[in-house]
Amino acid sequence: MSFQKITEQESLYHDLEKKSVHELLTEINQEDQKVALAVQKVIPQIEKLVTGIVERMKQGGRLFYLGAGTSGRLGVLDASEIPPTYGMPNTYVIGLIAGGEKALRNPVEAAEDDALKGWKELCEHQVSSRDVVVGIAASGTTPYVIGALHLARQEGILTGAIACNPDSPIAAEADIAIEPIVGPEYVTGSTRMKSGTAQKMVLNMISTATMIQLGRVKNNRMVNMQLTNQKLVDRGTRMIMDELGLDYDTAHHLLQLHGSVCEAVDSYHREWRLNQ
């Protein structure tokens, strides 16, 4: 398939090694400002994907991210932040990366070139038509992702793709293609830069909107967050203070007793109603 590989086009900037630090940073920032506008253009596609994810997760389905290199790492990162931020078990959003956990820190030779490996890894998780599989690849040409999306789609699984080239091979294998076109990278072909930023923004939007729709946020607060450190315990205590009008010590006691802001507030309201 022939398509426009914008991610591989030559940088708009030249002689980078001759520039001052200030010039480098200013020019990188100028390019980064293009990313949010590119993401804005694909909100309709993101909305469609989120709607499909929410529908399936309400029926017990899961969300899988699949990618290689930077794209895979971003998927794993987004998945790994769901439990602490929203108190969801780590079985609901799952990130898979070509080459496995070793690839999170080090390149794994040829891992992304195996077109069947991604599907095999999905099958190890008993993927089914209740789930959603989202492939992530800046270039849109990663065999690990393409093969997985192709076979997932054949099995009736909703598939999405996030790529930074238009009409890419992974987009052709997805029910919903999200393509923020950010243009050539500042360092030619270095897709960890603008392309990676665009992918991170899209993933943030997908997971955040999904969790809100699933009731894991109240007002604008992470009321189901895990209390894994003192900062979060203090944040949770202050949420309860604001919600219930309690003093710090009482709110802190309720939080420690119930283990989450949501449960502490709900329990307080239940007890109040019983005493009326």
Automatic annotation (TrEMBL):
<dbReference type="InterPro" id="IPR046348">
    <property type="entry name" value="SIS_dom_sf"/>
</dbReference>
<feature type="domain" description="SIS">
    <location>
        <begin position="53"/>
        <end position="216"/>
    </location>
</feature>
<comment type="pathway">
    <text>Amino-sugar metabolism; N-acetylmuramate degradation.</text>
</comment>
<comment type="similarity">
    <text>Belongs to the GCKR-like family. MurNAc-6-P etherase subfamily.</text>
</comment>
<feature type="active site" description="Proton donor">
    <location>
        <position position="81"/>
    </location>
</feature>
<dbReference type="InterPro" id="IPR001347">
    <property type="entry name" value="SIS_dom"/>
</dbReference>
<dbReference type="InterPro" id="IPR040190">
    <property type="entry name" value="MURQ/GCKR"/>
</dbReference>
<dbReference type="InterPro" id="IPR005488">
    <property type="entry name" value="Etherase_MurQ"/>
</dbReference>
<dbReference type="GO" id="GO:0016829">
    <property type="term" value="F:lyase activity"/>
</dbReference>
<protein>
    <recommendedName>
        <fullName>N-acetylmuramic acid 6-phosphate etherase</fullName>
        <ecNumber>4.2.1.126</ecNumber>
    </recommendedName>
</protein>
<comment type="subunit">
    <text>Homodimer.</text>
</comment>
<dbReference type="InterPro" id="IPR005486">
    <property type="entry name" value="Glucokinase_regulatory_CS"/>
</dbReference>
<dbReference type="Pfam" id="PF22645">
    <property type="entry name" value="GKRP_SIS_N"/>
</dbReference>
<keyword id="KW-0119">Carbohydrate metabolism</keyword>
<keyword id="KW-0456">Lyase</keyword>
<comment type="function">
    <text>Specifically catalyzes the cleavage of the D-lactyl ether substituent of MurNAc 6-phosphate, producing GlcNAc 6-phosphate and D-lactate.</text>
</comment>
<feature type="active site">
    <location>
        <position position="112"/>
    </location>
</feature>
